TrEMBL record:
Domain Protein YjdM N-terminal: start-end pairs: 4-32
Species, as recorded: Ignatzschineria rhizosphaerae
InterPro entries listed in its UniProt record: YjdM, YjdM_C, YjdM_N
Similarity comment text for this entry: Belongs to the YjdM family.
Record protein name field: Alkylphosphonate utilization protein
Length: 112
C-alpha cells in the first residue's frame, strides 16, 4: 500500500508520482509534490469531449462543424480557439472566433 495523497480533482486514490509531480491516471490531473494542489480561482469546471479538464486561458480545437444561431456563420471542424474563459451555464465556454464573441459548449471542444 502506498502513502500517496488522493487526487484533489476527482478524489481517486490511484495516484502515482514522479520526482516533482503527482499524477492521476483516472482524470489526467497533475499537481506538484512540493505544495498543495492549486485551487481554481472561480471554482467553475468544464471538461472537453474527452473528459480533460479545461481552465481559463486554454486553447481548444472544435471537433465538429457548429452552426451559429441567428447568423450564417459556421465554425468549421479543426478551428483553433485561443484564450477561452470558463463561465456558468449550459454554454460553458466564452471565447472569440474570427472577431465574434461567442459562448460555446465544451462537449464540442478538445484541448489543444
Amino acid at each position: 500500500m502506498h502513502n500517496l495523497p488522493p487526487c484533489p480533482q476527482c478524489g481517486m486514490e490511484h495516484t502515482y508520482t514522479d520526482t516533482e509531480f503527482y499524477f492521476c491516471p483516472d482524470c489526467g490531473n497533475e499537481w506538484s509534490t512540493k505544495e498543495e494542489a492549486p485551487k481554481e480561482e472561480t471554482g467553475l469546471t468544464a471538461r472537453d469531449a474527452h473528459g480533460t479538464p479545461l481552465v481559463d486561458g486554454d486553447s481548444v480545437t472544435v471537433i465538429k462543424d457548429l452552426k451559429v444561431r441567428g447568423s450564417s456563420m459556421v465554425i468549421k471542424q479543426g478551428t483553433l480557439i485561443k484564450g477561452i474563459r470558463i463561465i456558468e451555464g449550459d454554454h460553458d465556454i466564452d471565447c472569440k472566433v474570427n472577431g465574434t464573441s461567442l459562448q460555446l459548449k465544451s462537449e464540442f471542444m478538445k484541448k489543444a
